[in-house]
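Please produce the structure of this protein holding D-glutamic acid.
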Amino acid sequence: MIGIFDSGIGGLTVVRAVMDTLPEYDIVYFGDTARTPYGNKSGRTVIEYSLENTEFLASKGAKIIVMACNTASSVATEAVKNRFDMPIYEVISPAVDLALEKTRKDIIGVIGTRATIESGIYERKIRQKSPGAKIYSTPCPLLVPIVEEGWITKPETRMIVRKYLHPLKVRQIDTLILGCTHYPVLKNIIAHKIGNKVGIIDSSVALAGQIKQFLKDSPDIDAGLGKNGQTRFYVSDVTPQFEKTARTVIKRDIKLTQVDL
Ligand code: DGL
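Below is the modeled complex.
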């Protein structure tokens, strides 16, 4: 099974990409809805939660873990890799690779949660590969609750997105990384507000492609994964609002099972 986790809705954008790219593979998802959001919490807490989430997914039979959360990927990747002896995927590197492939002027914007932006991980990873790149980052803490609330097309959401993107727009970025897995849900509004000349980077599709390639190159691991096209969804808290938004994101009817970690 491929295990995927996030603090809530966001990771479902990654689940969707993995389902589209690897439709026959079994997936187990965990959304830590009781403890969301992660983006305003300390690194120590996010590491602790990420270890617990991975432990849970491993107990359900996951043989590969996808940390479908930029906040967890920013601060907890090393800790999770050190603790678990299985392939661990994070969402930052595929976004960086894709942004560097697409940018024409090497002027890249990054939006994410406070924890992700303050970690400076995107700047570090981009500079490692392109030392001269200009990078402008801005935290957008209100966007996660807006997505969780399902306020996808509200005028207030458009106004907030415009305000957040303004400092990046004036820097004339040509590429914008959606550095939070919740943000692809708002992709149309973000694309509209930043302008149609700016390429939008959502790492989920690139990440799913990397996993596909990895499984092709690693037949031993591939052989241990279930391939019945089943996806199971676990959350640490179930609310009717979450169920409704989750269905919109995943674009199908899903059954959520509540678990206590
Ligand atoms: N979707 C997550 C991310 O990519 C987490 C958002 C949050 O819980 O604050 O960062």
